[in-house]
TrEMBL record:
This is LacI family DNA-binding transcriptional regulator. Pfam families: LacI, Peripla_BP_3. It comes from the Bacteria. It comes from Salinicoccus bachuensis. Residues 2-56 form the HTH lacI-type domain. Keywords: DNA-binding, Transcription, Transcription regulation. CDD domains: HTH_LacI, PBP1_MalR-like. SMART domains: HTH_LACI. GO terms for molecular function: DNA binding. PROSITE patterns: HTH_LACI_1 (PS00356), HTH_LACI_2 (PS50932).
Amino acid sequence: MVTIKDVARIAGVSPSTVSRVIKDHEGISGSTKKKVRKIMEEIGYAPNIAARNLVTNQSNTIGLVIKSGMHEVNLNPFYSEVNLGVSETCRQKGFSTLTTSATDDASLLAEVKELISSRQVDGFILLYSKEGDPIAEFLSSSEFPFVVIGKDIHNDQEAIYVDNDNVQAAVSITELLIRKGYSKITMIVDNDVFAVATDRIRGFEAAMQEAGLSGSCRVVKCGDEDGSLGRMLDSLFGGDGPEVLLTLDGVLNARVISHLYQMKIRIPKDVATATFSDSLLTKFAAPPQTVVDIFPEELGKEAGNEIITLIKDEEKLKRNITVPTRIIERRSTQKEEGR
């Protein structure tokens, strides 16, 4: 599919200039319009009228795209808090939200295409960032408004990304654990596909290396199938176990501390635990968990503001927004006497 980016690259202008030419904007010179239109004709580019019609025939609805099964969506507080932030912003601006989710790319892409063709949404917010994501690639090539809550993997100047600095967040929590006297730290992840996971792993490993603790730095991956986490923990504590378990998010953390309880491993006496993303799961855990608070509701509010502004003004300057994080220390990392 020939896209507006292809026209811009060949013409040596920005995609926004091509967009203005298509609209016959008076701010574009006659020579530039002539050159761009000639290239459009030569390479067979036709403006995406369907997507553009949605701007004039608005549904006043924003689609939230989640790469996950609905069961996990309902369990994970991150999604509900992001949704709360998006919904609050949208409601204030006269928009509603609609959520679509699936575990496989093909089903998710089909749903996104159906929402566009049926004119049910004016724009999308993707609640993840992933290399080679077909949904982001489709929306970009279709020139359909979208914002990503996640990392700008490709340094894409034609999209908007809202994220935390997950590398630095992982560095900060790891450095805190090291300052508290821990050295044998294991990070547990249940996926390493999404940018948030790879960045947190990278920050953890960098902080351990900087402290001269690479030899006691471990990253282990567990599957979703029944028994996989228990088997992995049995293996970890089969000999000289870790001093700290740092998990990728609060849901995985809850699974870990539940298994530790069944194994009669006490927190923090036998092993300390910490994770990312604060919620009721971490606040009211037994014991309460030390976390990196990533402010998911604020991520949602920022994304909601950006997508609505983009829908109303497609020439909006694209930018990356970084929401700061903070560490909340709780009893789960309290250093015990003699450890």
